Amino acid sequence: MRILGLETEYGITDPADPRANPILLSSLLVTGCRTWAGERTTRWDYGGEDPLMDQRGVRRERTHVIPELLTDAHEFNAKAGSVTLRRRRGSWEDPAHLNAVLTNGARFYVDHAHPEYSGPEVTNARDAVIWDRAGDAIALEAAAAYTAAEDKPIALFKNNVDGKGASYGTHENFLVKRALDFDVLAQRLTSHLVTRQIYTGAGRVGLGMRGEQPGFQISQRADYMETEVALETTLRRPIVNSRDEPHAERKKWRRLHIIIGDANTFDVGTFMKLGTTSLVLSAIEADDARLDALVLADPVPAVWTVSRDLTLRGTVELADGTQATALDIQRALLEIARDYVTDAVDAQVVARWESLLERLARDIFETAREVEWVAKLQLLGRMRGKYGTDGREAPWDDPRIVASDIVWSQLGTGLSARLEAAGQVERLVSDEEVAAALYEAPRDTRAFLRGGIVAARPDIVDAAGWSTVVLDRDTSHGQLEVVHLDDPASASHPLIDELMQR
Amino acid sequence: MPQQSVNQDSYDDDLPEEVPPPAAPAASTDALDALLDEIDGNLQVNAEQFVRSFVQKGGQ
């Protein structure tokens, strides 16, 4: 069991007006999401979770500040649990940062110039797939509400590139033990992040950040990875992000924020992305020294090399000077991961992992119902034949091929969705599970409290964040109660439990 | 506490046995060709303009 979370930034366009302002469109989409949610939604709590942590890297001593700043002082109360008081400082919302906290525990909001769905905390990769698909369905509900209100169509894309140089992310979050040395963690995890793309990649037409060269590669994000470890996520993007914002008890936990992954429209891609990475993290937490044999000599160029090698036969250099294919490295990681299986979902991950590696090594097209880049390559490959002239295939930069790569990921009507409707994509979760997850939060994490209180008592919820629920029960509305949910794995809090049952 | 009574076990019951997934056959030729025919008209008309106008801002 590991706390996981998945965030998706969607591409967004007004098909009738390609020049429409994406921040405004995103904001109107979040408004649409609120319309869909009705009264059962709340604002985001931007209140300081660590008010003394200075952005410049220093932290002020508690004894050196006025008591008013100590908004995070938890006063334990056996009946009410961890609750602190906060003075209301107005309720204005910035339209460029509009949010909707939903009954399923998710956050739907404007991030930069994209709508983003941050799924609720879950405890396994299968649940991650369910609530990720629920996010896509919620985005479509928001789009329908937008269209009804604005009388305009809107198109949403679950991809990561526009082919003109811009990239936007799909971020994975993993709760890991704080005791781990971050540099060791980053070094041991990087080989997996570089090579897992052979079964998690969504496929991309175009090589280079702007698609300067015609061609097809395995990963959407690969060309945008420029450094090994860094704090940034929007420029000089790193394979391993070092942002230290645990949204949980800092002494015990880190929230590892991974930005290298592609957005996946295939269940297997999402499932394997989270499932395999979680198992490798368990090996790292156990200080498994076998991982050191897999450290890469030069990880950033290796990301590009692996992404462009559709034969899966090319090699990258390891730190000890030997050469290995991505499949070799993945096979070694799989053998290590077997020792860290603790539940039924882990076992499913390992079984699928083994099977995928076997079939990818034999003939990649055997995995076309599961691996998104292979399915895309198969469909677009056939399209190149169809549009070819003089016995030659159409080039990769034929506008019909490039357009199809974009339309592949369009929510609702995209090529991937149509392939799935035609029974050509393997599903891991049922439509019923996804339909329920639009409204219901996972029952085994604190998302149950966040989503549950928004569902049961929206009248008294002022705002909510990852680790807080802010209640407004004061008749004069001047004083707010901040309920602290510091343990992501706890789905119980004395005060919230009581209020939800009322 | 309802959240205590419904936990991981209820999800596990829904999972298939721990057997390797079967080797999936590749997508059928018919399904792919049908899909390509379906989108053909649209692509012939406006693919170039669509690609040119698909411009996004950078995100994270």
Mean pLDDT of chain A: 91
Number of strands of chain B: 0
- How many domains would you count in the coordinates of chain A? 2
Q: What's the SSE pattern of chain B?
A: HHH
Main sheet characteristics of chain A: 12 strands, mixed
Which spans of chain A of ≥5 residues are poorly predicted at pLDDT below 50? 49-80
Instruction: Say how many strands of chain A there are.
Output: 20
N- and C-termini, Cα separation of chain B? 38 Å
Instruction: Tell me the overall shape of chain A.
Output: globular
* Low-pLDDT segments of chain B: 1-25
The gyration radius over C-alpha positions of chain B equals 23 Å
Q: Give the overall shape of chain B, derived from the CA principal axes.
A: elongated
Task: Please name the two chains that share the biggest interface, counting residues whose Cβ lies under 8 Å from a Cβ on the partner chain.
Answer: A-B, 73 and 44 residues
* Strand residues, percent of chain A: 15-25%
Instruction: Please describe the biggest sheet of chain B, giving its number of strands, its sense, and whether it closes into a barrel.
Output: none
Describe this structure in words.
The complex is a heterodimer of chains A (502) and B (60). Chain A contains 14 helices and 20 strands. Chain A is an alpha+beta fold and 502 residues long. Chain A folds into two domains: 218 residues, no CATH class; 237 residues, no CATH class. In chain A, strands 4-5-20-19-18-3-6-7-8-1-10-15 form a twelve-stranded mixed sheet. A two-stranded antiparallel sheet of chain A has the order 2-9. In chain A, strands 11-12 form a two-stranded antiparallel ribbon. In chain A, helix 5 crosses helix 7, helix 9 runs antiparallel to helix 10 and helix 13 packs parallel to helix 14. The two termini of chain A are 31 Å apart. Chain B is built from three helices and no strands. Chain B has 60 residues and is mainly α. The N terminus of chain B is likely disordered. The two termini of chain B are 38 Å apart. Helix content of chain B is 57%, strand content 0%. Classes of the chains: A alpha+beta (502), B mainly alpha (60). At the A-B interface, strand 2, helix 8, helix 9, helix 10 and helix 11 of A face helix 1, helix 2 and helix 3 of B.
